[in-house]
Amino acid sequence: MAHCVGDSDGSDNFEWDSDGDGEEAASFNAAGASSSAMASTNADAPGPSTRVANGNGKAGPSASLVHKYMDMGFPEEIVLKAMKDNGDNGADSLVELLLTYQELGNDLKVDNGFASGCVPQNVDDSDDDDILENWDDEDAGGRSTGVANSVDDSGDEDFLHEMSQTDEKVYSLVKMGFPEDEAALAVTRCGQDASISVLVDSIYASQTAGDVYCGNLSDYEDNSYGGRNKGRFMDANKKRRKRYEGQAHGSRGPLDGSSDEPMPLPHPMVGFSLPHQCTRPVDRSLPSQAMGPPYFYYENVALAPKGVWTTISRFLYDIQPEFVDSKYFCAAARKRGYIHNLPLENRSPLLPIPPKKISEAFPHTKRWWPSWDPRRQFNCLQTCVSSAKLLERIRVALTNSSDPPPPRVQKFVLEECRKWNLAWVGLNKVAPLEPDEMEFLLGFPKDHTRGISRRERYRSLGNSFQVDTVAYHLSVLKDMYPQGMNVLSLFSGIGGAEVALHRLDIDI
Predict the structure, then answer these.
(1) pLDDT digits over 151-199, tens only?
(2) What separation, in Å, do the N-terminal and C-terminal C-alpha atoms of the chain show?
(3) Is residue 163 one of the residues assigned to a domain?
(4) Number of folded domains in the chain?
(5) Tens digits of residue pLDDT in 239-297
(6) Does residue 474 contact residue 342 with C-beta atoms inside 8 Å?
(7) How many beta carbons lie within 10 A of that of residue 176, not counting itself?
(8) Domain around 422
(9) Which Gene3D superfamilies would you find in this protein's record (predicted)?
(10) Which helix (H) or strand (E) holds 26?
(11) Cα 28 to the center of its chain, rounded Å
């Protein structure tokens, strides 16, 4: 990501590693469910230890900290469990555990009775002292004695009943043709009360994404899992590794970059087709696993480091990226690569066609644009803008020069204008693009990012889709799903894909 330089910062240095590290991915399906989640850590989270000594000299959680995390939206049972398991590992580790346990939900069997198929034990505020006092007192069965007496043998019956329901769902999915391990993992993810349609969509989404989430669940396995669930996770991971050894998602090969070669970038970077141009033959073959829905769409910067595109392609059925420069769709360059399994026929551009020259996009700049500035389009829009000190240096250099300025001054000014995408707004005066002007160039509606700080607006826009480019690719879905479609969007950012679908009149 580019290093942001504020107006108050006197430095004009700029890192050009990547102009968009917030890559986006989306998966589209005609039936099922959609979901999204965002989580952030609290900057004021407690320090390294979340425990206090109780009357027995043993460490227990602070009641105030328990309530603090409960105020953040975490259930009390999960907070207590995470604090105990976290020990003295610090606030970041605690938050990670809380988020993990919250994602696992009813599939997490914790020591105080919060188990799949069991009703969580409600604890009143008056019971806090008892819980803290008995925090480390566990019976032979590994269950906290603070609540052991409140759970009788009926818990085992509930668990067996829940497992029979789970097995019934798994059996139904297997009869529909899904592998048993993927069916079991879908029930684990969505819960045994989820409908069959939700489970089916979960399996499709998992297959599209490479089931990375489920593969990583083993990182969190400890004694808090029920033995049966733990065995299922481990067995499923073993089966998946065996099944994906070079087939399901393409030849995996070593992932250390030793065999990766730089991805050749086409010139010109026009993708598989452009609007209003004759369609040229494209040699793109999709494996059978990637044909048809669910459709997926992944974006990253074209000039990614060596081996990045090869690795991404390897995990997405070895599909080759479609490299496109958005300068063919708007008045700013944006070199991006897109890996997708969308059809290539019947693409259509968004209307009205956006201007492709600076003078057309911002006609008020014509009056001040000097003849020695040959720019007709902006460079790739970045995540930050120039400093006020640099703008003043340019103004002073031009004011103290002749008209036209000498070549040395012209070279200095043009280099800075190209680097920072500066526009002429007055006599000898340049300025960075305003956030609403960047929104216009990127295809977003006016004030789409309004409501956050200017710095955050620039950062978000610099990491976003160019909507017109993306909409051209997604336009093939309009006739395929006239009644609308379900969308699973990962790393949505400011919602470039969703805006593109909305402008295409595709209901989400």
Answers:
(1) 344 444 554 555 567 788 888 888 777 888 888 888 877 777 777 877 8
(2) 31
(3) no
(4) 2
(5) 544 443 433 333 344 444 444 566 788 889 999 999 988 767 777 888 888 998 999 99
(6) yes
(7) 12
(8) 363-463
(9) DNA helicase RuvA subunit, C-terminal domain, Vaccinia Virus protein VP39
(10) strand 25-29
(11) 15
Lowest-confidence pick of 70-79, 392-401, 452-461:
70-79
82-135 residue pLDDT tens? 888 887 777 777 877 787 777 666 555 444 444 333 333 343 444 444 433 344
Contacts of 322 (CB under 8 A, 6+ apart): 271, 272, 337, 338, 339, 340, 473
Phi, psi dihedrals of residue 412, rounded to the nearest 5°: -60, -45
DSSP letter string, 34-65? ---------TT---S--EEE-TTS-EEE-HHH
Phi, psi (rounded to 5 degrees) for 41: -90, 155
Are 327 and 407 within one domain? no
Answer with the residue of higher pLDDT: 325 or 233.
325
Q: Which of 493, 380, 362 is nearest to 436 (CA)?
A: 362
Residue 147 lies in a domain: no
Are residues 391 and 416 in contact, defined by beta-carbon separation less than 8 angstroms? no
Residue 202, in any domain of the structure: no
Same domain, yes or no, for 470 and 415?
A: no
In terms of domains, do 470 and 334 share one? yes
Instruction: Report whether 461 contacts 469 (CB < 8 A).
Output: no
Using CA atoms, how far apart are residues 329 and 352, in angstroms rounded to an integer? 11
- Please name which of 113, 105, 100 lies closest in space to residue 141, comparing C-alpha atoms: 113
Q: Are residues 266 and 327 in the same domain?
A: yes
In angstroms, rounded to a whole number, what is the distance separating the alpha carbons of residues 309 and 307? 6
Q: 478 — phi, psi (to 5°)?
A: -60, -50
Indicate whether 201 belongs to any domain.
no
Report whether 128 contacts 83 (CB < 8 A): no
How far apart (Å, rounded) are the C-alpha atoms in residues 25 and 190?
A: 21
